[in-house]
Amino acid sequence: MPCKGRKGKACSERCVAFRGGKHDSDKCRDCGHRSRHHTSTDSIEDIVARYDTQELRKRTTDVAARAESAAGFRSRGGAQPSVESAKTKEKKKNKETGAHMVEVDHVYVITTGLDSDGELRRNRPPTPAEIERRRKFGLTIFRTQERPLRFSTEWSEQNVAEWLRKHLPDLFEFLDLMYPHEDKNWVFVAKAHSDVYAIDRGIDGAMLDKYKGAASRGKKHFVVRIATKQRIPSAWYTPNGFANVIERLRQGEELMAESESEDEAPRKKSKRVAMKTAKGKAKAKVESDSEEEVSAETQSSEDDVVVVKQKQIPDLPPLPNEESDSDIEEIFPSTSLLPLGAGSSRRKRSRSKDDGD
User: What pLDDT, on the 0 to 100 scale, is given for residue 2?
Assistant: First the structure.
């Protein structure tokens, strides 16, 4: 307790602590001032107590503060990050349930429809050029960084259907408007070697993982395929997708099949060899039917076109019936019964006879 002095003047003795005298305990022996002139010094606890501790709230926990300050150092366990990312939470959840997320390269739709037996009308998969061309129609989607195509192996049938509707909204809106009475207007498609076939049953995440492709090939080759049960003509979704036809269906218009779908299996080529008459001369022509215009060819009249079925064999002269051996010998002289050299000796005699004459 230092001395403050008297009457506004500082203590000349610079007394730092009050010490009572021998004869007067209320008077400092060092400076001679009374105890009231020696004020007490506040301790740290007294100074801190003056402030309201409620105003000094903690903005984070001790665990989070340690984790933030120790960022970049090797973890020894115990300290957890203050905020877990969505990807970390997803991995943690999948680890607990035993599921894992699978990413595919693209999803495409086959629009040929099914026949009366429930089989695809075309069992050949689309070519890469066809898949890329249908991208602008909303029938093919590819994965991107902003839109990765991922599904879980633990998904149910409803989760798979919602996932497909999310990535193919225009197609499913068209199917719902066009075929409102069908509960499920699409089927899953699997591939075996170079053919594809329909699987018309419940498809969950495990089935998608099974038929996406070989795991050894990588996600660049993983594909999900589906097909519509009804055939969709290409005129309904070209050139700008299903937007126009959806608007027509919303207005109550009934659509009729205008043309066959481009996905339909091509017809077999047939070749016909025909003979066309032109100014009295026969001219051979090979006609070939294209895949798209088999029934569009005009038929020529029978007078102008004669179909050659097979090569004609020339007739041989008729053989003599019931004739004598001499008559047959005149027509077909036989030399098989003559002895060796008989023919040459006969010619020599005829020559010598001629010379003698």
Answer: 65
pLDDT grade, residue 114 (50/70/90)?
Answer: very high
Give the count of domains, the chain: 2
Residue 169 is part of which domain span?
A: 101-250
Residues 6+ apart with CB under 8 A from 194: 124, 125
**How would you classify the pairing of strands 223-228 and 281-288?**
unpaired
CB-based contact 37:7 (threshold 8 Å): no
Alpha helices (H) along the chain: 44-49, 62-69, 86-97, 128-133, 157-167, 169-178, 205-211, 243-250, 325-331, 342-356
Q: Decide: 192 and 120 in contact? Cβ < 8 Å.
A: no
In the chain, the amino acid numbered 220 is K
For residue 110, the model assigns a pLDDT of 94
Pair 227, 107: CB distance under 8 Å: no
Regarding whether 128 and 234 lie in a shared domain, the answer is: yes
Which pLDDT tens digit goes with each residue over 227-268?
999 999 988 888 788 988 898 888 888 877 544 444 444 444
Residue environment code for 17-56, b if the CB has 16+ CB neighbours within 10 A, otherwise e: ebeeeeeeeeebeebbbeeebbeeeeeeeeeeeeeeeeee
* 3 state SS for 112-164: CCECCCCCECCCCCCCHHHHHHHHHHCCEEECCCCCCEEEECCCCHHHHHHHH
Same-domain check for residues 28 and 132:
no
